[in-house]
Each structure stands twice: as structure tokens, then as C-alpha cells.
């Protein structure tokens, strides 16, 4: 089997190429794959340890899309690192792309340059959420589409189902539609119509509420990107606020300080559950290839895990499974 080739946007991200190059090197120490770093050749070479210069390909790119730039501008900027990285996948010179740069630009370029899978009208951004059971739940869409119709939500359910099956190893994932109540009568026009389309679909358990994302009662939670993004950002806010309160209480109470020493291991495990660096990034699912959208603040560990995620995504054949199922549904 040919080694997986991953194009890495070395210039994307808030801290320049240093953490990205470091993350790529760390990934290479742990897994066999071919990394292609895209960006300023001089800067990349200066950051590479001596023994790695022959193991890593570099594609020179003179332009970088900044966070303040418009996502649609990315299509015109053919010399940018993200444009060139996506194009390597489009041309078949790489199997997947990883970028911690402008997420809108990454999604726009991946969708329009790489194209969509057959039967997919809109790709979705997937994230994994921590649950009480220790198994993560799959939430999609978390930001690729602000407005969706019922057909889009049904496609998201299929994409989430195969993502959970192939990448998380869940044989028959349970699928829920995120609404404001479990009863069939709850929801808005779009979710009510999506409910009808999904009725009878393998694993579909009906409407679920926000708490079901975290309690482990559902494997795949489907919503539009507007709601999904709000859920994601709110969850991050709650997690950091709780951590802040815990630290404040410990600081103010001498008794708590003694307990805190005992709690250190617990805190470490909690941080691991809610740390985005542990997952690495969010795959844009439904495109003809693999694109992992990483956090702008990604450290080397996050970059390394995003690369691992891209390798697994390519290896499992999730795209072929999605296309096959959507073709079956279209024929029914």
C-alpha cells in the first residue's frame, strides 16, 4: 500500500510556521507518511532539524492568507500556501491537506477546488465532543453552512454515521437531530422536515437535546452550521470558565490547596478531554479528498494530531462509503 501524502499549510496559524513545522516533525517520528510542507521555503528550511531535510518535501509559496482576509479572495490568490496545499490534493499529488490558517479560506478552496463527493450537496465541518462515557460524540455541521435545508441535514446524518463507523469504530452509530426537545413535534420547519426524511434510517433515534451531546446517549448529533458553531463556542467558553473558577477557589482557600495537589491528576485528565490539541482539528467531510481544519492557535501537538487524523481519514476509505450509501438512497 502506497504511503499517505499529506500537504501541510506551513504558513497558516497564529504563530507562523514554527509550531507547524515542529508538529510535522513530531508526526514523522511516530508515523510513516510523506509530509509536504507548503510555504516560504527559506523559513521552513531554517526550522527543520538536520536529519529531516531529506524526509520532508517543500512546495514554495510566497503568499499567506491572513485571518482578516475574505474567504472568497482565497480563490484569486494562487500563490498562497493554502491554495497550493489544496491544489496538491486536487492534482492527486497529496491525499489530504491540513491547515491551521484561515478556516473560511480552507473550506472554500477545499470545496471549490477539490469538489464535492457524488451525492453531497454541501460539505460539513465535523468535531468530536467529550462525553461522560469517555467515548466522543460526533457533532456536525459546526460551521461550514449557516443555512441548511432538510436534505442537507439528511446528508450530514449519513456523513456523520460513516465517520463514526470508520474512524471511531462504532458498528451502528446512533444518530440524533439536535432540536429544542425530544418530542417529534419539537423543532423548526427544517428539523421537522429532516425528521421525516430520516425516519427509518439505520441508527436514527429521533430528536435529541443539547445535553445529549455530552452524556454519551447519542453517537452522531446533526444540526446546521449556525447552531453547531454556537454549541462549539459555548462549550469551549463553559469549559474555560469552570477551569477558571476551580483555580480561583483553590487560590483563595488553604484547605483547597491541599486537595488540589491530590486533584492534579484529575485536572490533567480533564484537560485532556477538553483540549482541542488532543483531537487536532475538524475534518471537512463531503469533499473529494481530505481536509482537516485546525485551530489558529494550534501548538505542535495539535498539528501532529491533525496530521494523524488526516492519515486515518484517508486510510479508512470513509469517502467511498459515504458515496455508496448516498447512491443507494438516491435509488430507493
SSE diagram, text form:
Layout lengths: L4 E5 L7 H14 L3 E6 L1 H7 L9 E4 L20 H10 L5 E4 L3 H12 L9 E6 L7 E4 L9 H19 L6 E4 L10 H10 L5 E5 L11 E3 L2 H28 L1 H21 L1 H4 L2 E4 L5 E3 L6 H17 L1 H14 L1
Parallel strand pairs: 1-2, 1-4, 2-3, 4-11, 6-9, 7-8, 7-9
Antiparallel strand pairs: 5-6, 5-10, 10-11
Helix pairs in contact: 1-10, 3-4, 5-6, 5-11, 7-8
Task: Write up this protein.
With 332 residues, the protein is of the alpha/beta class. It folds into 2 domains: 1-120 and 286-317, Isopropylmalate Dehydrogenase, CATH 3.40.718; 122-277, 3-Layer(aba) Sandwich (Isopropylmalate Dehydrogenase). The protein is 47% helix and 14% strand. β2 (34-39), α2 and β3 form a beta-alpha-beta unit. α1 crosses α10 and α5 (150-168) packs across α6. The chain is globular and about 60 Å long. The relative contact order is 0.17.
Strand order of the largest sheet: 3-2-1-4-11-10-5-6-9-7-8
Q: Provide a count of the helices.
A: 11
Helix content: 40-55%
**CATH architecture descriptor of the largest domain:** 3-Layer(aba) Sandwich
Shape: globular
- Count of folded domains: 2
Task: Name the CATH superfamily classification of the largest domain.
Answer: Isopropylmalate Dehydrogenase
| H/E element order | EHEHEHEHEEHEHEEHHHEEHH
Biggest beta-sheet profile: 11 strands, mixed
Portion in strands: 5-15%
CATH-assigned fold name of the largest domain: Isopropylmalate Dehydrogenase
Q: List how many beta strands DSSP finds.
A: 11
Low confidence ranges: none
Rg, rounded, reads 21 Å
Distance between the termini: 35 Å
Amino acid at each position: 500500500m502506497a504511503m499517505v501524502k499529506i500537504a501541510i499549510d506551513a504558513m497558516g496559524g497564529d504563530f507562523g510556521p514554527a509550531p507547524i513545522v515542529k508538529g510535522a516533525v513530531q508526526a514523522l517520528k511516530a508515523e510513516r507518511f510523506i509530509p509536504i510542507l507548503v510555504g516560504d521555503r527559506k523559513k521552513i528550511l531554517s526550522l527543520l532539524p538536520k536529519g529531516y531535510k531529506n524526509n520532508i518535501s517543500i512546495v514554495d509559496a510566497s503568499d499567506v492568507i491572513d485571518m482578516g482576509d475574505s474567504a472568497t479572495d482565497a480563490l484569486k490568490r494562487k500563490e498562497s500556501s493554502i491554495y497550493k496545499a489544496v491544489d496538491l490534493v486536487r492534482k492527486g499529488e497529496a491525499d489530504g491537506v491540513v491547515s491551521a490558517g484561515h478556516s473560511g479560506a480552507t473550506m472554500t478552496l477545499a470545496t471549490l477546488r477539490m469538489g464535492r463527493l457524488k451525492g453531497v450537496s454541501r460539505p460539513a465541518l465535523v468535531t468530536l465532543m467529550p462525553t461522560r462515557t469517555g467515548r466522543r460524540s460526533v457533532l456536525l455541521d459546526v460551521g461550514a453552512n449557516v443555512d441548511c435545508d432538510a436534505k442537507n441535514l439528511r446528508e450530514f446524518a449519513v456523513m456523520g454515521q460513516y465517520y463514526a463507523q470508520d474512524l471511531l469504530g462504532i458498528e451502528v452509530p446512533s444518530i440524533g437531530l439536535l432540536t429544542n426537545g425530544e418530542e417529534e413535534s419539537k423543532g423548526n420547519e427544517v428539523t421537522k422536515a429532516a425528521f421525516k426524511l430520516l425516519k427509518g434510517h439505520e441508527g436514527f433515534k429521533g430528536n435529541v437535546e443539547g445535553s445529549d451531546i455530552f452524556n454519551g446517549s447519542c453517537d452522531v448529533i446533526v444540526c446546521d452550521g449556525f447552531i453547531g458553531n454556537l454549541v462549539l463556542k459555548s462549550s469551549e467558553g463553559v469549559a474555560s470558565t469552570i477551569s477558571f473558577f476551580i483555580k480561583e477557589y483553590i487560590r483563595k482557600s488553604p484547605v483547597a490547596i491541599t486537595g488540589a495537589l491530590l486533584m492534579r491528576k484529575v485536572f490533567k485528565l480533564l484537560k485532556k478531554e477538553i483540549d482541542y490539541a488532543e483531537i487536532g482539528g475538524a475534518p471537512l467531510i463531503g469533499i473529494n479528498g481530505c481536509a482537516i481544519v485546525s485551530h489558529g492557535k494550534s501548538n505542535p501537538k495539535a498539528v501532529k494530531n491533525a496530521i494523524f487524523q488526516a492519515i486515518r481519514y484517508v486510510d479508512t476509505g470513509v469517502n467511498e462509503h459515504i458515496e455508496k450509501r448516498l447512491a443507494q438512497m438516491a435509488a430507493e
